[in-house]
């Protein structure tokens, strides 16, 4: 029987938290350099990492007693954002875009956090034998 | 958590840099009529040069925040404005006074842009704090 274990789901939610934090940090860096001449806006990039991980998504176990190992953690770099208009000083940071990124990351974080809290509640329910 | 700390530090470095820009703009405005500086010449307007500071990033690997630092405060080499005012103590033989090369509208624009950037970074700090707050509520 192959089921997605609690551990795998919680690891995935944890990675979503990490991703939101990375996006937040990169957007904060962009905002900090909004007046730095020649600075190019960057974004956290997970696409290449995701492509690599999708192949590993099918968890293989040789026995039904084995617990599937959680996926490796999110690791990703940053890359320059394409298609932004540069100002005359060579800087292409857009204030609204960065604030949007930060707000989105914040709500992603809240969503994953809520799901994680629900999982924790279930586990506590099980530990307390349904009380 | 360390990444969020780095993000906070980056935003704080931006607050510092923008505050420096405001300070320099204010001192330019304050000295718009100063015809005698320490070297006996009129005041030269100063400008802040900002540079990206990658020292925050190195501490935490690839996906980190990049801070900003004040690389230099440079003097503007534009020529002084000449104003005809024979009664001024610093007037030359022809009655002209060399006034500082400060352009008031330019300073106002600089100050406004610095203050907007300051606000933006304060907002960013608020969002990061929100994230930390939510992380603390995970166990509830």
Key phrases:
heterodimer, A: 131 residues, two-stranded antiparallel sheet, 2 strands, elongated, B: 140 residues, alpha+beta, two-stranded antiparallel ribbon, 3 helices, 4 strands, 18% strand
Describe, in plain words, how this protein is organized in 3D.
The complex is a heterodimer of chains A (131) and B (140). By secondary structure, chain A is mainly alpha-helical. Chain A has helices at residues 6-32, 47-54, 95-127; strands spanning 42-45, 77-80. In chain A, helix 1 packs antiparallel against helix 3. The longest helix of chain A is centred in the C-terminal third of the chain and has 33 residues, at 95-127. Chain B is 47% helix and 18% strand. In chain B, helix 1 (2-30) runs antiparallel to helix 3 (104-136).
| Rg over alpha carbons of chain A | 19 Å
Determine the fraction of residues in helical runs of chain B and give it as a percent range.
40-55%
Instruction: Give the % helix of chain A.
Output: 40-55%
Distance between the termini of chain A: 29 Å
Oligomeric category: heterodimer
Strand content of chain A: 5-15%
The total of beta strands of chain B comes to 4
Mean pLDDT of chain A: 81
What global shape of chain A is seen?
A: elongated
Determine the structural class of chain B based on helices, strands and strand pairing: alpha+beta
Largest interface (C-beta under 8 Å) = A-B, 38 and 43 residues
Strand content of chain B: 15-25%
Q: Let me know the average pLDDT of chain B.
A: 88
| SSE-based structural type of chain A | mainly alpha
Tally the beta strands of chain A: 2
- SSE ordering of chain A: HEHEH
What is the number of helical segments of chain B per DSSP (H or I, 4+ residues)? 3
Alpha-carbon distance between the two ends of chain B: 18 Å
Q: Largest beta sheet of chain B: what is the strand line-up?
A: 1-2
Major sheet details of chain A: 2 strands, antiparallel
Strand arrangement, major sheet of chain A: 1-2
């Amino acid at each position: 029987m192959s089921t997605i274990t609690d551990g795998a789901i919680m690891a995935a939610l944890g990675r979503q938290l990490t991703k939101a934090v990375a996006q937040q940090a990169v957007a904060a860096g962009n905002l900090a350099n909004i007046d730095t001449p020649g600075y190019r806006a960057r974004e956290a990039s997970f696409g290449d990492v995701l492509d690599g991980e999708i192949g590993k998504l099918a968890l293989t176990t040789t026995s039904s007693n084995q617990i599937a190992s959680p996926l490796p953690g999110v690791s990703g770099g940053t890359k320059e954002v394409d298609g932004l208009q540069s100002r005359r000083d060579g800087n292409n940071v857009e204030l609204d875009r960065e604030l949007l990124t930060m707000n989105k990351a914040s709500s992603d974080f809240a969503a994953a956090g809520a799901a994680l809290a629900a999982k924790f509640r279930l586990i506590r329910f099980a530990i307390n034998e349904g009380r | 958590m360390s990444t969020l700390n780095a993000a906070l530090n980056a935003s704080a470095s931006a607050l510092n840099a923008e505050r420096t820009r405001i300070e320099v703009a204010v001192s330019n405005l304050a000295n718009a009529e100063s015809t005698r500086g320490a070297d006996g010449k009129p005041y030269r307007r100063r400008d802040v040069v900002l540079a990206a500071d990658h020292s925050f990033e190195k501490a935490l690997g690839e996906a980190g925040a990049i801070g900003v630092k004040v690389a230099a405060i440079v003097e503007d080499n534009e020529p002084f404005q000449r104003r005809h005012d024979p009664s001024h103590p610093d007037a030359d033989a022809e009655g002209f006074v060399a006034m500082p090369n400060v352009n008031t509208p330019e300073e106002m624009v600089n100050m406004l842009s610095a203050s907007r950037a300051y606000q933006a970074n304060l907002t960013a700090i608020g969002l990061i704090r929100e994230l930390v707050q939510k992380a603390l509520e995970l166990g509830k």
